[in-house]
């Protein structure tokens, strides 16, 4: 068994000789190129909110929850469908989860579309 210092010493020697087999390469940012692209914000939100008679400025006012919730919900619904979604999830952390029950959370998954008696799609996003 090698000690940590012995392994470091061997790695330094190999690096000095140009051998890179034991040297860990830096992480590539390639895996993160799409990070944040599937977020309902900015220009994306503005485009979908305009279809429902609002603008992206609505989201900057914290009162939108009381005044424009249905407009925002319909815009998010349309955006999600265009992204290929067919279910939505309400993710939550119960009260007292912080400090008492570490890491516990819950979720409720629901279908975004329902069908009426005539087999037509009914939007039910509430």
TrEMBL record:
Residues 33-126 form the Glutamine synthetase type III N-terminal domain. This is Glutamine synthetase type III N-terminal domain-containing protein. GO terms for molecular function: glutamine synthetase activity. Pfam families: GSIII_N (PF12437). It comes from the Eukaryota.
